[in-house]
Amino acid sequence: MGSYRSKPAVFYDQSTNFDDIHLPARPAGFSAYPTAGKGTHSGTTAAFASSGGSRRWAWLGGTSERAMIVMLTLVAVVTKLYRIGRRNSVSWDEAHFGKFGAYYLNQTFYHDVHPPLAKMLVGLSELLAGHNGSFDFKGGHTYPAYVNYRFMRVFNAGFGIALTPMAYVTCRKLRMPTEFAAMAALFVTFDNALCVMSRFILLDAPLLGFTGLALTMLACFYRQRQHPFSTDWWRFLLLTGLALGLVASAKWVGLFAVTLVGSFTIVELFEMFCNTRLPMRVYAKHWAARIVALIVIPLCIYALCFKVHFSVLSRYRSAASFMPIGFQTKMRGNPISRQPYEIHTGSAVRLQSHTSATGYLHSHLHNYPMGSMRQQITGYGYADPNNIWNIRRVAAAGSFQHAEDVLATGDPIAGAIGNGDIITLHHNSTNTYLYADPGFEAPFSKKYREVSAMKDNEPGALSSNSLWVVEIVNPERRMNDGQIHPLGTPIRLRSAAMGCTLLSTGERLDKNWGWNQAEIACDIDKSSTQDSGGYLWTIERHINANMTSVNLGKFMSSSFLRDFGVVNRQMWITNNALVPDHDKHNVLESGPISWPFMVYPMRMVGWDDGSIKYLEIGNPLLWWASATVCLIFPLQLFYWLVRWQRRSFNWMPDQFREYIEGAMILWGGWVLHYLPFFLMGRVTYLHHYLPALYFSILFLAYQIYHTCSWYMSRRGLIRVLYVCVSVVAFTFWWFSPLTYGWDKPIKDLKGMQWVSSWPVYTDKFAL
Amino acid sequence: MSVGEGQLKARTSGRTAGGKPVSSKAGDFESIATTPESVDADTSSTKATVPWWVRDASSYAFTCLTVLSFVTRYWRIWDPAQVVFDEVHFGKFASYYLRRQYYFDVHPPLAKMLIAAGGWLVGYDGGFLFDKIGLDYMSHGVPYIMLRGWVALFGAALPLLVYMIMAESGYSVAAALLAGLLVTFDNALVAHGRLIMLDNIMLFFILATVYAYVRFFKQRHRAFSAQWWAWLIGSGAMLGCTVSCKLVGLLTIPLIGSAVIYDLWRIIDIRRGTTMAQFAQHFAARVVGFIAVPFALYLGFFYIHFAVLTHTGPGDGYHTAQFQMQLIDSPMAKSSFNVHYGDEIAFRHRDTGVYLESSTARYPLRYEDKRVSSQGQQVTGAKKSSDAAYWRIIPASRQDDTFEGFMARLRHTDVVQLEHVVTGGLLRTHDVASPLMPTNMEFTVAAANDTAATPDTMWQIRIDGAIGNTTQLKTSASFVRVVSEQHGVAMWTHLKPLLPEWGGRHQEINGNKKPEEKSAVWTVAKIRGRVATPAEQEEMRRRVTPMSFLAKYAELQGLMLHHNSALTATHPFQSSPISWPLLTRGISFWTDNAQRRQIYLLGNPAGWWMADVALLLYAMLVPLLEFFRRRAVRVIDPVAERHLQRSTAFIVAAWALHYLPFFLMGRSLFLHHYLPSSIFAYMLLAAMFHFFNFDDYRRFSLRNWNGRARALLPSPIAALVFAVIAVVHIATFVFFAPLTYGSRSLPPDEINSRRWLSSYDLHFQK
Questions:
Q1: A274 and B268 in contact by Cβ < 8 A?
Q2: Which helix (DSSP H) or strand (DSSP E) does residue A521 occupy?
Q3: ipTM score assigned to the predicted complex
Q4: Are the Cβ atoms of B631 and A660 closer than 8 angstroms?
């Protein structure tokens, strides 16, 4: 390590890229990068690097840097907080996220598609605002006096405000001079969409804030490249990991930031790999450091958020029913943990399949239209009297061969039912037995046999076909006494007649005769391992009037990792279920293709003349310019590639590398935060573009600075800067009525209808 | 940037390793295997020691392959004497060419025209229409052996082309022979290669394209020479033929395209001394060769297509009226009258063919879903025309209700009322939901004296493709939209669901809020009492405005693309691309229940799986070598590495580009879509055999496909590997041959012994 640090140039093989290319003499008229802007550039860089003030904040630069940051932050504070409490009713998605925050106050379980961090922060803001969790955030309702919604909005806007100084620091770290970094920060400040989405209690502001933080930390870490394993290098590496953990815990969209940092790291590690002078030992250390900081730490933070989430939300609500039973039994006020412990002949039980979509073993007064034509057995997801089965013990374990004899006497045996016992399952409401029929294929999955419900008064109803052997599979440790119990002992049911195993096939029955319920069948193939979910059933409910209920929670174990896995899987399922409904045209949805050029801004509230109206519309100039710059960049790359192949490439190698690395971080961020939306099947909204927009705005400033500095003197650069900032600020002001709320008739805003598809005062989709 | 840099380094190292002086002429360090000088040096030093059977091994191998490939393709080609699988389509199309009747198909015409040309050569008249799989050829007098034999010529040429490509790319005789054998003994290629189907013809052109391109690339040091031009144009021509066979052939374009870009990227490198003017010449030559020539050929085949298919036929209905009128005997050209006010006409829906009709029956008050109707008189779409299907055309403004006004012809954008002749009411739409679609408006008939309903009864006639409002409405030939002036909805109907019993199971007619929809088009089928006299027919035929070739082509091409992407109906034997390389399932081509014989399309499982292993090996090898190279660790000979990264990479690219795009396609896909890729996978298997067994590239590589060999095999191990691959492959082929040729009936236990995977759904398992 020591030797490595002493030769920082080794890290980057300086000879790699261009110095074996003999550059032609530079054309005289071409003002070489960045000589024109040299005064500002190198001067401020020097000032930036040098210290001033405490060592602790040295990375933020000297006094002038800090003054600049403070000034920019003040502008951001003003723009974000101006009349923030003006609309005093629950607006837009505050209805969701305010409510989710309130759950943390009253500690009731809920389920949502997003990870919990951002919502816990909302909850924190409610706590600080003195809310007691009793307001339910109904959309459009006026906030009561005891809910300090203004404070909550300010708290949330803090993330939006932080974006401005972070944008500044990012640009400085990507080697932009002070003035242009300030321009980038002002661009971010003066975007109407970023502004309006920060002014309500939404998740977008925390997401943007954490994304910005990740980018800033990445840029800081990137600048430490020459000093690997130094204190600052470690600090920013760890902070990058921390930011990734936060952003991924705020919304899954944050995973795009993880991808950005991941790609950056892969490229970095690959380039190091190609440096043959770097010892393998040091190289391995680089890997290890990044694995710890960029994989382990974010994962821990993500898991920690759920840990807190679980421990705060300790009150049962039916939303928790998808959670593992062990988790549910630990919740306060849960309805399932008090049940009779031992299951005897005559107990009524409800069997729940271990495959999530199947639900309970069910039968109803409808017959199969094929096969045996007998009454159907299905899996049904909702509470229903038809889910109740009476269990009868017919023979004890090991007496399988005597089943026929037992049947002859027909008397159930008293006592608790255990592993290997032979039982019948009698369906109370239709007087039938669960009956496996070897003669017929299952209605849908032809490789399985049919299971039906046989009328108990028919001859042959009580035959070996309606006898089932109970097999306990992986019982709870504290219930492992060879007997079946509610909740804790998953069981397999094996038909005594054929040895086939009852399973939920995962298929759905026909809508017309099977009501789209789950198919239940019997698997005759004994060779397969039958420990997967489809074969396993849990006695979810046990009713026996003769027995006293006990608290089963004390028998159940719960594992955080399992709960964590289950809740994430459920989030994934819920998220995928948010598919667009093509039959119903929704004015709020928009496809990713329309975002960069802002074809369809979105109304956030009702549009009647008297109400205070907010439109999610960006600063059109910024959106259009940044999208254009992002789309042109690949062409630029291609152009340079051809120039390079022609050896008429007049960048200085190091400068080009510095330029291209910065550009790839920003442009790559835009690509990674934008393109994946094209692959998503779920509904998408305009504000999904905001993280990508943040990258593209910074990239716009980056490109303006670099492009201009090739051709202009310092004075010209400054003029460009003034023009850009004032034009952007003016447009921001022009559209600010829609950002800060407009309570007069919308007809007065004709000047804002720049594009016919904008829903400013006409509405194409008005019904 | 760093990739380009990598190439630079590789070249430099290759140069020094090759021991050439740095100042040698620009191309030397780039040649595929060896430079001409070094070959000469090699041969001259070893000439004396090469025995004749080694020297001429290439010719023997080629001859041997020729014999084997013809035997495998022509063995029992007469059996079964029945229509097998897609012969049903392609045999039929060939017949249409010979009958000169117009047909429509989603594929370009070349391969089908070639089949037809074969039929024409042997005097087949197109009398049989191949209507059903299993129909007997003998009793219908079809020269099917000739037709199959003709297609099998293309199939038999595949192994030879594969051999030639491998040899020209600088592989050894053994590798080239192995690739040839693998392709010769592939069950899927054989099964396809001896039936009247398009795939083998397309495969032939794909391989011919690749072969010509390799030859062209090898001419790069003699740019713009006659040979260079010949192979450039040849390669482009073969590409044009490929694309003209099947739309899947389009995938060959990105393959050649990427190779051309790679080539151009090398040429533009200034160290090669190319000026921009020279580069522009190179660029232009390739635009001509790889864009202009193929496209011209493609158009040319369509030109022939239209020139041959001059008569009306089953494909008419897909086209616009003007197109149809070009065809001889087209009913459109023979009976197309101008429609006048006062005429009683029958509207016919273009897509579904139903007639607009009304009856005295009324809509029920409540539908099943509890919605309420107007209880007005029903307007429905009936399959057969009757008196109830006639509507009289009344001008919208009764003021010009003069005789002249009344006798005027109906033109585009005219507004009319439509009086139902039988019941006397006026066609009306109003703001009531239609019986089956809550989003669409109900159509009904209003009493003539119901003035409140008058605005609802005004219809604008919009003729598709009209130029200005002078275009006149004609029967049959005009495609017309009937749009409510008041509500802007277009008269529309749909196939499913049909109306319930109360509506006589007719199609529902309703008002579609998108009048521009393709399915809102109607024709005026007939005018009551108007029949064309022969003189009128002749007159009308004379007056048909001819359509230019390009207009016809543009129309057909649009329809082909549209219908190709609409081929989404599920087929019992369709499969997903992921299953193809693993060969998890085949396609049942033909069964004969009486003799318990069957033809089941299945690749050679052993061969396909070995090829998969080769693909995996390559996928692991290349990054591994790249890592070694980046760490400056020399593990293999630079010549071998360059070979791996260029000619082998080209094969892999060919495999990937003919395979991966299928993952993006929405249409129904079949195993035979993998056939082009399977050939390239076999070539890769042979290339990997070469890579792992041959240490010295120069000594073993062939310069030309029929060139002299200097040595055959480097070691007994190599011979053993060759023998194992070949024997396993051929044995598997023979084992599965009864399913490929349908030659004999297999008892159930033999059938089951061939179900190597339980998903091979062979017939007669029991």
A1: no
A2: strand A518-523
A3: 0.71
A4: no
